[in-house]
Amino acid sequence: MKILFVSFYMTFPPVCGAAVVSMNTARFINGRKIFFQLGEKTEKRKLKDGTILISQRLHSAGYLVKIMTIIKCIPKIIFIIKKQKPDYIILEGAAWTFYYYCLVRMMKLMGIKSHVVYHSHNVDYVLRYQKDAKVVAILTKWAEFRLLRSVEIVTAVSERDAKQFKELYQVDSLVFPNGVDVQAFKAISNEDISQIKKKYGLTGNLILFMGLPDYPPNREGLRFLIDKVMPALLMKKKDFKLVVIGGELKEKKSWINNPGSVPYEDVPKIVKACDICVAPIFSGSGTRLKILEYMAAEKPVVSTKKGAEGLDIINGKEIYIADTENSFVQMILHLFSHPEAALSAAINGRKMAESKYDWRIITKHFENLLCKNLDRSIN
Fold first, then answer.
1. What gap in Å lies between CA 28 and CA 127, rounded to an integer?
2. Are residues 315 and 367 in the same domain?
3. Does residue 68 have a pLDDT over 60?
């Protein structure tokens, strides 16, 4: 089975959660794989797993320049498809529905017969409606509707997202959840943790938040932590530290440790080095990759109900849910003062990540579905 992945953002190396999802989907699915991405430079090379990576430089000179770059890439992608003749084209969906729809329309006009999968990372219209002007949301809904009806297979990251696709567009989708490379976290040693603490100056009682600070749901969650939760915690105990990775913050506080965008290989070590991991998310769509990574690292997690949405986890077992400033503060204090409760949730979370959300399990199931679909089309 030959597969061409298309990603309108840089996936190798990953710099955001969407890129991590796309990278691991390609990494763990078997077959002959080509991956087209927009990245920092134009190049073609072979990755360690044999995947052929084709990168087109995406200029960062402004929004309109980015749009023009993407549009200009469509003929190049068509050329790659006609040359490689993949069995499947997997569109890595994270807020690019309009451009993917343009690509699919061009493919149909050119008579391309490859099966097309839209690998959605969220319900794009719902995300846009929450964070953008209504005009942008309406245009997104128009494009998402047409894209989903133009491809052969649509995936959703959760049953909730699948239900929303059905309600909004009358389109059935397969649940292909976000996952985590559990083995990458298992491999972290005590020596690795000591070295990473020294490298990034991680001291005190460490509370971790991961995510791009400019992404609106993350920005909202960080404001909640910085303006409300941390000041209340510091009134109780002075050695709490908030560790934020994923990008640079404008706020400079003595109790904030903000390494910014760290190398991908350092992320599991930093998560393992922290004491409690948090996901105060109040808006958005899809499921939170950060929570799966927290659980894989065997760390206690405090999240809002929205943050844990779409994941098969139970409050008080694999995770602790808190939706208000006071409850969030009290839960963090409870876990620091009751290490047995923190350890129990951490172990349960790791077991859940290992049994249900490991990329090896998820992609194997998805791969089997693609093979069966291909066999039916041949016969």
1. 28
2. no
3. yes
Please check whether residues 126 and 201 belong to one and the same domain. Answer: no
CA dist 210 and 293 (Å) reads 10
Q: Which of 292, 295, 293, 291 is nearest to 348 (CA)?
A: 295
Q: Label residues 259-296 b or e (16+ Cβ within 10 Å = b).
A: beebeeebbbbbbbbbbbbbbbbeebbbbbbbbbbbbb
Q: Per the structure block, which two tokens stand in for 364?
A: 């194997």
Kindly indicate the confidence band of residue 39, based on its pLDDT and cuts at 50, 70 and 90.
confident
Query: Is residue 86 located within the same domain as residue 226?
Result: no
What's the per-residue H, E or C state across 64-100? Answer: HHHHHHHHHHHHHHHHHHHHHCCCEEEEEECCCHHHH
Q: How far apart are CA 261 and CA 334, in angstroms?
A: 30
Q: How confident is the model at residue 136 (pLDDT cuts 50, 70, 90)?
A: confident
Q: Which two tokens stand for residue 80?
A: 């790659």
Based on the fold, state whether residues 145 and 255 are members of the same structural domain. no
Annotate 15-62 with DSSP letters as a single string. Answer: -SHHHHHHHHHHHHS-SEEEEEEEESS-EEEE-TTSPEEEEEE---S-
CB neighbours (10 Å) of residue 336? 18
Amino acid making up residue 119: H
Domain count, the chain: 2
For residues 90 and 128, the model is more confident at 90
The per-residue pLDDT for 182 is 95
Question: SS3 for 285?
Answer: coil
Yes or no: say if 345 and 317 are a contact pair by the CB < 8 Å rule: yes
DSSP conformational letter for 264: G
Encode pLDDT of 305-324 as tens digits.
999 998 999 999 999 999 99
What is the number of residues in the chain? 379
Strands 52-57 and 115-120: unpaired
Taking 70 as the threshold, does the pLDDT of residue 59 lie above it? no
Phi-psi region of 224 (alpha: psi -120 to 50; beta: other; left: phi over 0): alpha
Residue position matching structure tokens 């204090």: 333
Q: If you average pLDDT over every residue of the chain, what do you get? A: 92
Same domain flag for 343 and 198: yes
Structural domain harbouring 161? 2-179+359-378
